[in-house]
């Protein structure tokens, strides 16, 4: 069993413990980022968001890594809305191996819809002025950390997909996957992907245009 798999499987008891402690509204998902295209390796209480083993990550790049508050490999208490309108409060922590390479993500998703409704009810009786929040700017180290994580994701995605007889439509679908996951939001991603695929930047942009036009 490879090291990364052993490390990630070591978090399964923690996931079960967290889910049991906080009840059925608490979902825990463990991602294996050495297999980005089907990164979900374990879920508990997955009725909260419907995450299934074998699916890919969704919010990691677009929401977590892009957030101003993402520091020290984690982002806590960010919210999203499900397709049926429920509010989900989430936290994501990255998992690294002994060589400090990012190999996974530990995600906790809590359905706070009932709490939100209760808070709205209480706010009608106990209005309060919220203290203004002061956000700290990302440091150069924070920016470099995010860039390194996305670089690893790009390399792993392409490593898992590229083969000598790769057809044009397969490359287009690979670009589509990375576009959907927010990879192209990162500066320099086009150049890196073009180099790893052995194609020009112009070709990558033409694939992106083709995807958007469809």
TrEMBL record:
<dbReference type="InterPro" id="IPR039445">
    <property type="entry name" value="DauR-like_HTH"/>
</dbReference>
<protein>
    <submittedName>
        <fullName>Transcriptional regulator</fullName>
    </submittedName>
</protein>
<feature type="domain" description="Transcriptional regulator DauR-like HTH">
    <location>
        <begin position="150"/>
        <end position="209"/>
    </location>
</feature>
<dbReference type="Pfam" id="PF08348">
    <property type="entry name" value="PAS_6"/>
</dbReference>
<dbReference type="InterPro" id="IPR013559">
    <property type="entry name" value="YheO"/>
</dbReference>
<feature type="domain" description="YheO-like">
    <location>
        <begin position="8"/>
        <end position="120"/>
    </location>
</feature>
<dbReference type="InterPro" id="IPR039446">
    <property type="entry name" value="DauR-like"/>
</dbReference>
<dbReference type="Pfam" id="PF13309">
    <property type="entry name" value="HTH_22"/>
</dbReference>
């Amino acid at each position: 069993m490879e090291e990364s798999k052993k490390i990630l499987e070591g978090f399964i008891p923690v996931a079960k413990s967290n889910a049991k402690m906080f009840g059925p509204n608490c979902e825990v998902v463990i991602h294996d980022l050495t297999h980005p295209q089907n990164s979900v390796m374990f879920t508990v209480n997955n009725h909260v968001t419907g995450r299934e083993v074998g699916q890919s990550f969704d919010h990691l790049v677009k929401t977590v890594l892009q957030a101003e508050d993402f520091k020290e490999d984690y982002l806590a208490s960010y919210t999203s809305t499900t397709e049926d309108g429920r509010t989900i409060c989430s936290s994501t922590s990255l998992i690294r191996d002994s060589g400090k390479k990012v190999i996974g993500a530990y995600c906790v998703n809590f359905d706070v819809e009932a709490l939100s409704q209760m808070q709205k009810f209480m706010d009608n009786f106990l209005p309060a002025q919220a203290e203004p929040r002061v956000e700290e700017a990302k440091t150069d180290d924070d920016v470099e950390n995010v860039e390194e994580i996305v670089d690893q994701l790009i390399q792993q995605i392409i490593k898992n997909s590229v083969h000598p007889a790769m057809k044009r439509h397969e490359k287009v679908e690979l670009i589509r996957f990375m576009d959907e996951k927010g990879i192209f939001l990162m500066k320099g991603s086009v150049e890196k992907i073009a180099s790893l695929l052995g194609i020009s930047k112009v070709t990558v942009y033409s694939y992106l245009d083709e995807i958007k036009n469809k």
